[in-house]
Specification:
CATH superfamily: Calycin beta-barrel core domain
Shape: globular
Radius of gyration: 15 Å
Strand content: over 45%
Structural class: mainly beta
Strand order of the largest sheet: 1-2-3-4-5-6-7-8-9-10
CATH class: Mainly Beta
Number of helices: 0
């Protein structure tokens, strides 16, 4: 059940680009609560720039669980702005890509959808593409992050 996600365990760093501008990104993945959940902790730092003159720090926490009744992985992602994305794993090709699509987003007007796709580039590198779709619209890329595994001691974010 968890084998496809073992790849992500550990600490990652990289860079991002998208609608809010360019960022530095950090992320950790670890199994928690007797290995029943995968905890994801992320931080993106945007220095002041043309697209984002004041800069910002975006943080999010997530939990991936396995819903036995549905036989699906569920990803609940909590954003510092108060949004909570409820994703379902739509497709997974172990060692290649994973795609989560929202079933619901809390604290946003009805009809919005989000999609996160993770593409594995090698043993220590992956790309995450985050897309949004307004009501009745197609998905558009909001941001893309490129991560590299941090070797050595695990570092807390």
């Amino acid at each position: 059940m968890w084998t496809p996600f073992n790849y992500f365990i550990g600490s990652w760093r990289g860079s991002g680009k998208g609608q809010p501008g360019e960022s530095r990104v950090e992320r950790t993945y670890e199994f928690v609560l007797n290995n029943k959940f995968l905890f994801v902790k992320s931080k993106s730092t945007y220095e002041p720039q043309e697209k984002n003159p004041h800069g910002e720090i975006h943080e999010e926490w997530g939990l991936i669980s396995y819903n036995k009744a549905r036989e699906k992985h569920v990803f609940r992602q909590f954003h510092v702005e108060g949004f909570v994305n409820h994703y379902i794993l739509d497709q997974a090709k172990e060692g290649e890509s994973f795609t989560f699509i929202t079933e619901e987003i809390e604290n946003i007007p009805p009809g919005w959808r989000a999609r996160e796709t993770y593409r594995v580039l090698g043993p220590d590198e992956f790309i995450e593409v985050f897309e949004l779709a307004g009501p009745g619209k197609e998905f558009e890329v909001y941001g893309e992050n490129r991560f590299q595994r941090v070797h050595g001691a695990q570092e807390a974010i």
